[in-house]
Amino acid sequence: MLGAAETLPVSCLHEIRPQLPKEKIEGCHICTSVTPGEPQVLLGKDKAFTYDFVFDLDTWQERIYTTCMGKLIEGCFEGYNATVLAYGQTGAGKTYTMGTGFDMSISEEEQGIIPRAISHLFSGIEERKRAAQSQGVAAPEFKVSAQFLELYNEEILDLFDSTRDPDARHRKSNIKIHEDASGSIYTTGVTSRLISSQDELIQCLRQGALSRTTASTQMNVQSSRSHAIFTIHLCQTRVCARPDSLLDGSQPAAEYETLTAKFHFVDLAGSERLKRTGATGERAKEGISINCGLLALGNVISALGDQSKKVVHVPYRDSKLTRLLQDSLGGNSQTIMIACVSPSDRDFMETLNTLKYANRARNIKNKVVVNQDKTSQQISALRAEIARLQMELMEYKAGKRVIGEDGSEGYSDLFRENAMLQKENNTLRMRVKAMQEAIDAINSRVTYLMSQEANLMLAKAGDGNEAIGTLIQNYIREIEELRTKLLESESMNESLRRSLSRVSARPPFSVGSSPGSGLAALCSPAAPTDTEASDVLRRAKQDLERLKKKERRQQRKSGCEEEDGREDEDEDSGSEESLVDSDSDAEEKAVNFQADLADLTCEIEIKQKLIDELENSQRRLQTLKHQYEEKLILLQNKIRDTQLERDRVLQNLSTMECYTEEKANKIKADYEKRLKEMNRDLQKLQAAQKEHARLLKNQSRYERELRKLQAEVAEMKKAKVALMKQMREEQQRRRLAETKRNREIAQLKKEQRRQEVRAWLATSCQWLGAGVCPALALKKFPKKGTSQTFSKAARLKWQSLERRIFDIVMQRMTIVNLEADMERLIKKREELSLLQEALLSKRAKLQAESPKEQKGLQELNEEIEVLGANIDYINDSISDCQATIMQIEETKEELDSTDTSVVISSCSLAEARLLLDNFLKASIDKGLQVAQKDAQIRLLEGRLRQSDVASSSQNHALLDALREKAESHPELQALIHNVQQAIPNVSLWSFWLRPADIGFTPPSSPPTRPRNDRNVFSRLTSTQSQGSALDKGIINPVGGTKNARTAPLQCVSVAEGHTKPVLCLDATDELLFTGSKDRSCKMWNLVTGQEIASLKGHPNNVVSIKYCSHTGLVFTVSTSYIKVWDIRDSARCIRTLTSSGQVISGDACAGTSTRTVTSVQGEHQINQIALNPTGTTLYAAAGNSVRVWELSRLQPVGKLSGHIGPVMCLTVNQTASNHDLVVTGSKDHYVKVFEIMEGTVGNIGPTHNFEPPHYDGIECLAIQGDVLFSGSRDNGIKKWDLEQQELIQQIPNAHKDWVCALAFIPGRPMVLSACRGGVIKVWNVDNFSPVGEIKGHESPINAICTNSKHIFTASSDCRVKLWNYVPGLTPCLPRRVLAIKGRATSLP
């Protein structure tokens, strides 16, 4: 049990959930498949992704757990951390797989990963306790605790906290994330519950799961709105594994170790697209937070899985989710990532992104170590060190390891030679085995052939049968086996004979004739003498030279004999027997020579090693000789001195009178004692000398290390000096660059001041009436080029980056377009599938009720077949889109391999600045180009719609001419009346679309005289019943007001009938049309003052209404729909137009009973519509573009683009060349002009862009001739000259609130403006001076329109007022009129 790190990759598991019933009903196809027998999933037709494990639709939970998860729990018992990470789109089955849903109806087979892991954990604990008891050792102790966290809107919440208020999710959490010294992540402030049983842990999991935040979306009924992390902590104390015995045979005492492990179960919230989930408000914020966390997780995975190792920083701190999972991704954990996907082609893009996400995670490498306490780690390290030392000691004893003269350790020559011989022996064994197999095969073949030959001979003789053939074959096999053994014996005998002859022919060697003798001579006591050692060396060298000469002679002899053999073979090729004999002799001689050569080579190597060993021994003996000679001389001197001293003392004693034998013995004993002490000192000296020699060796090593460190320090000092020098140079360059930049700034400021002075002088010259200002001619300011030229290297780098960016943009744009097409096709398929289901049910019902109705059944079958063919075609189109997307993704991966970071990292500081400047310029240019292209597309679409409207107006003119003709021809009038009576629900389109049968030319414009009861609206009015008059609106006249004489306008009537604010209106001399928030439009007869009809069935507020007098059609706008009403016969909706350009027959909103707030996916809110003066083209402002419709065919023909914000208002006029001039105002504060030429289709860009813009969004526009007025939310009104394309005048605060409506008074140079405060103001068009104002309504005024007689105002007070202009008032003096000239930017 050690602390060494083991590198393991993150395992990826791919799980495909089954299709939902809803997906099957909607006709979704399966776009995923699994390769049988391989962990590979196919997306689409041929895009393959390989993972560690892949599970298809019909895989059970138990198989998933036993295949992948069981080993993680077993690893926890060994001290390894583990993590299971479930990722995928919303509704892909992550919560079901993890097992935190806790559905009461779920069976035991469908239990998720977490309940199974809990059961496995506690069963493992019991199993280990029983195993310890059976082995007679102490049972391990386990401690289990659990935590349950959720990450909701980047706030960590504790699901085990019973005191937490569930409604206080938005409050800041007190849970903190920390990192310990070893790099592990832990949290503070989290409830950790101690667990004693499996049921208790399951109950805690259920309690936390029920506290988790969930909500319903359009893609998932119960969608998790937070990331959940369920953590199990396991701590165990057990008897550690110990070695069998120590060297001395003693048994060690029992030792305990403590292991800890944590298991993270992470259930990530699903990635989601807001346009698909339909989330709004709080759900949308949750979805954004979820996607941000998953984006940060993806960045971490990309950084860790970067195989090029270019990414150094891993952004763990970008999100709390990645911070909590820091151990699981790239840290100390065994991690498995479960990628849950949907098989339906509706979720193709989400599935593709999930597969790519998981594919990147496979490149992550985790460093897994055992989690031990410090004591257990130290014991394990010491135990490993003891085992290593014991192994080394055994190797020293066995002679495997030796120590050289310089103290270095190494393996002995005997060990190396033994290893080499073992390797050679293994190789020869393999060769022998292979040759034996070949011999057996040859023998079998020979036996078979010989038996066949014998059988043929017997067959010819007529005595053969099967039994005899078998017997013969057995005999032949036995004979061949005996022959093989005989050959082997003879070969061995011959080899032994040749060896004996070579040994007997070899001259004997007195010394070193064998390795054993050489080594014996080396190790004998007589070896240290100089004469013997020199003699041994001399003889060994002579022997080596003789062997080498013999080897060369053998080689030459072998070559000659081989040549002779080849010549003999060529000469005797005619005789087969001689050829076989010569071959066998040559082979035998070659074998002999090879054996001799091998023996010589082996002996040469042995001799060479012997010589080397003798030389080393001689050097060692010389060293020992000098040392022992010095010590011998020293000891001899000491002994001689001691003997002399002893003799001197004894002589003195003999001369003394008191000499006795006892004294002599005593003195002798003293000297003997001194001699013993000296001998002991001598031994200590020898030991000290050995220690000193060892210290000298260590000192030399220390000196080498010291010199090495000193050299490294010197190198570091040199590097430090170089770095400091580089820093000083960089500071100097930065200071020079700062000075240069300040100088350039000062120069630019100076140039700006010069330009300002020049502009002021030019203005002064204009005031003075001079053509050219003389002051400007006095001094010409030099122009300083501000553009900096690229160096060649920088230019090449910029070109590379530009190509890369262009490729990325084109790929993404293509993928977005393909996704839009695929979503549109999927939506169409759903509609057709529902229609097909309805037809099938209708057919079944018809078959049950009237089975004999064959005609109806046949029609239904044909319709069903047509729908089936359409659905198949749509499915093929979806498959083609998916294949194209996969191909683009593969190309994208190839482009990603050439990363731009290499180019950027190789840039110098100056090059980086130049590239940054070029990036800014390129982004501005590209933005302008995009705007221009969009404007061109809108212009082309407008031209297409214009042509449609022109055709429709011609048809309407034909109808009007036909009706006028009928006034003088009673027969024709009766015919028209009979047609209307016979077919009341059919429009007269087919009748008046055939003018050739009537024989007249339609007028160029409709008649202007009122036709009263002779027009179609009077007839409609007359046919209506009077019984419902109380339920309809009415226009009531009003009396004069108190300030009627001073007010510029006088209210004459009020139209009441709407129940909610009136938002829009349109009027002719005879009819008034109003739209309201009550989701209805009303038609009023201005002659009778009565409501004619009410157009209902709108999904939401009616924000715009237009009547086309040329065609008799009414256009109403609600949300993203434009309803086309034919009011000539029954006021019914004949077409429904959408903002995306689709045309739906009939009323597409007929089934709408409740108010629809949001638009359909892919559609945009339509804010306003307008008709061109000829009534041939309809313009609809939807989103940031204007779609152009051709009314003759009711088809979209183009789109006006160029705004970056929603288009809020538009107006249409006609130029002198009969081109439509469309003026649009947007929330982006700009007013743009589009000139639509006849036949223009596609995307049309603006021709003029008026500047300066308003300070807020544009709310209303009014155009008359070459004069344009624009009103804004900034309370101001601006007057523009369309011919000169410039701003004439502006009034910043024309009203006290938003300017909501503008209109011209017909026949008078007056313009009206109304605001949210209910005030109406009258302005003089010529000088833009105020004429007067009146409080028109108490509520905001939403719209103004006029006819030849009245002015109409629609207000939020649910009423429409009719006004008359009061002429003769003196205009007021202008108060805040600014004569500021503007400009219009001309666009190509």
UniProtKB/TrEMBL annotation:
The entry's localization annotation reads: Cell projection, Axon; Cell projection, Dendrite; Cell projection, Growth cone; Cytoplasm, Cytoskeleton
A GO cellular component annotation here is: growth cone
What Pfam family is a match for this entry?
KIF21A_2nd
Keyword Coiled coil in annotation = yes
**Positions of WD repeats:** 1055-1094, 1251-1290, 1292-1333, 1334-1364
What molecular function terms (GO) are annotated for this protein? ATP binding; microtubule binding; microtubule motor activity
Q: Which InterPro entries match?
A: KIF21A/B_hel_1 (IPR056533), KIF21A/B_hel_2 (IPR056532), Kinesin-like_fam (IPR027640), Kinesin_motor_CS (IPR019821), Kinesin_motor_dom (IPR001752), Kinesin_motor_dom_sf (IPR036961), P-loop_NTPase (IPR027417), WD40/YVTN_repeat-like_dom_sf (IPR015943)
Q: Which PANTHER family match?
A: CHROMOSOME-ASSOCIATED KINESIN KIF4A-RELATED, KINESIN-LIKE PROTEIN KIF21B ISOFORM X1
Please give the name of this protein: Kinesin family member 21B
Organism field: Catharus ustulatus (Russet-backed thrush)
Query: What gene, per UniProt, encodes this protein?
Result: KIF21B
